[in-house]
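Box 3.1 A note on notation
Throughout this textbook, protein chains are presented in two layers. The first layer is the amino acid sequence; the second is a token string describing backbone geometry. Keep the layers aligned when reading.
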Amino acid sequence: MSEKRNIPISLPVTGEEEWQAVKEPLMTGWITAGPKVREFEQLFAEKHGVKHAIAVTSATTALHLALVALGVGKGDEVIVPAFTWVSTANIVLYCGARVVFVDIDTATFNLDVLDLETKITSKTKAIIPVHLFGLCADIDAIKAIAPNIPIVEDGACAAGAMYKGKYAGNLGDIGCFSFHPRKSITTGEGGMLTTNDDGIAEKLSMLRNHGASVSEEQRHHGPKPYILPDFNMVGYNYRMTDLQGAVGVVQIKKLDHFISERQNWADFYIKELAGIDWLLTPKVEEGYKHGWQSFVTFVDESKSPGTRNEIMEKLQEAGISTRPGTHAVHMLNYYKDLMKVDENDFPGAKAANNYSMAIPLHNRMSPEDYEYVVNILKSL
């Protein structure tokens, strides 16, 4: 083996520009949600071709507010892919509604539309397709099956991703994004909601700020800042800070470059790893632009030199970080106990849980890093 390296699964790209950006809110004293958050929202909306973008504290809180804005509550059902990060299911429980799992297609790791058709009932209040790892779900197929059911896009991984010429977040009724450090752009923590519906946008804006009829910035800069706003609904404190917004303004301008760079190296991986018969690499159909938040492979243990976990251990020993793509939520202890489902009820999600393997793909890797990953995989 060649010289050992230490290659993390992901690293954010931040530096002098982001450092300089946070000085302005620190110096002005406007640190909570204010002009920098508003600028970030405007840039994000323009980039994704939507009328409204509303910044919040995380993709989890974005998803929660999306369901609240749609009126999801007790007695309602919300359809969620069984293979996703746990928060996609948790937010349904926050609303007192029932999670209905649907299986995934292991070729895309996204929702299986054939299984979706069997899960819709008169109680289905929303569908949450996940654009997993940056690949958009087949929204047209979902709409053909459920034309009248609201779609909340879990685009946590999908900033800048596209489907048939439209950006993620502009495909359903509401889009939800994450700016966690493992995502292509980051604000540390943070999230964004997108929508083209004026009424929903107004509701989301109030919900993230305790239900206040006007924002803190509007009140402080208005003619009577000493008058507190009215509250016409129960809301939450899900505001993004201007420190995060300032970083977001810098990061969103780099999104195209980050994705282009990741696309080049994803192409490199796909080409170089094609000869490994036990390792299946992602496939992107025509009409899709992948966001490449992660490069997630599938280990065929019938041909591989060891189990998926044994291979991950060998890669770790060689200084290459890996992770399962994510987890099958129906196999987590809480949901097993809550829903009494068998892990074999969702075979695609179970297989993805047991055999998916993300390898490093991020904008702080060098060409030598990528070559090292490929050479180590070929040597196994």
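The two ends are 10 Å apart (CA to CA). The first strand starts at residue 52 and ends at 56.
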